[in-house]
Amino acid sequence: MNFNLAEFSAAYGTFKQLPPSKGLEIAFSGHSNVGKSSLINSLFGRRSLARVSATPGKTATVNFYKLGDVSFVDLPGYGYAKVSKSEKERWRDLIGGYLGDDRREIGLIMQLVDFRHPPTKDDLVMIDYLIDCELPFIIVLTKADKLNKSERSAREAALPGELPCFDQLTVVPFSAVSGEGVEQLRKIVEEISSDFAKNRQ
User: Fold this and answer.
1) Domains of the chain
2) CA-CA distance, 120 to 123, in Å (whole number)?
3) Could you give the CA distance from residue 44 to residue 161 in angstroms, rounded to a whole number?
4) What is the pLDDT of residue 88?
5) Which of 85, 128, 140, 156 is the least buried, fewest Cβ under 10 Å from its Cβ?
């Protein structure tokens, strides 16, 4: 796959607006300001394909990006406190509606967690939801470059007690600054895309 050829496709603000699946979809989920836009830009080797903002809660729509026959879906960041109750409910309906739609061909969800801190309560709710719904997902530990060696070791030691079903999870440390994890994530995407295409034949 030539990841540099990815393009922005569309953005939708309500669940009813979401179009039907037209093929494999790979989604990005995570807390507000966890680094989803930076991950998307790094994955596709583009500086501003997804808008990066220092303001949490900036992504308030479901944003679709297209690469060949694969759609990459950026879900709104959850857990941001400084928005209205109605806005939170809209985000929840969007995220829950997308993930709960069994007609969608979701091949993978990249669940982002800030490597520097224990998973938030909202992170754990989302991870439990993905497990309960038997949705395929991996954990991407963002902002790995912001940890020194001893801090990283401590966080790695704590993770098995923090993440449910840790021994069954694929966990990928990631940094948009150093590029750590980018090639591993690209390889995972390529394998899923290849398997999906084979199953379609």
Assistant:
1) 3-200 (3.40.50.300)
2) 5
3) 33
4) 63
5) 85
